[in-house]
Amino acid sequence: MSTSEFVYLNGEYSSKETTSLSILDRGFLFGDGVYELIPIYNKKIFYVEDHLKRLRSSLEQINISPLLLDTLNLIKIINKIIKINDYNDHYIYIHISRGVQQKRNHVYSDDCKPTVLVMGENYKPFSRSDIVKGKKAICEEDYRWLKSNIKSTSLLANVLIKNKANNSNSYEALLLRDGLLTEGSASNVFIVKGGVIKTPKLSNKLLPGITRKFLADLISLHNLDYAECDISKDELFDADEIFCSSSTNPVVPITQLDDKTISDSAGVISMDLYNHTQDYIRKNFK
Asked: What DSSP line would sit under 89-118, residue for residue?
């Protein structure tokens, strides 16, 4: 890999260290933008059409024309970023803000030209031994905005909640709104009870995770019992197994929630699903 990674910004490829944004960009001033995080396995883009479909939906919901994506050819840009940086297993961020506006104003101008940034980030997924051991989590009230289905760059609430978990030596914070599970601060959440895998049904209160969809596809492929439904706090704490899903780690078993031990190690169904994800990636991204 080159000593200096290259990123894409508004039509140009340049060094990550030297690329800069305007201080008048609404993404910086207001968090006025959306993003995607896409895994790369063996130089191949994972579930790319699903990621771009969600990005299109996020743009529509914040009133940025998704026609932008038709002119950009993001797949071509991502593949060039992979090639010039010699990425193998990596992660690609796409950030799109509403753009630069000369006057700082809550009311945005219709002639703002969106800012488009594409860059790589290297995360090391948990080892198998980490997965078998499982992770700790805490429960927190979900005080985020009520359009959490938009993958917005406005992540302050998520940041504060995730750091509270980190300061408690926990991997994640599982969020409850009106007594019902929504998701984690940076993940979707599943439970297992009586052999049935359950996850909260999609709504404006949680992100339609692409890894969540990937797991649902695998669950269907392997004929596992599955339900998308409301999950109460009592049901969460009474679960036989709990696991989180995200782009960086598709299945992360939660073996302790607050002061309660859920299990001594990762549950059987969680491990089966983890193995299915690894098998799928090995077989389809050779």
From this structure: SEEEEEEEE--B-SS--SSPPTTPPPEEEE
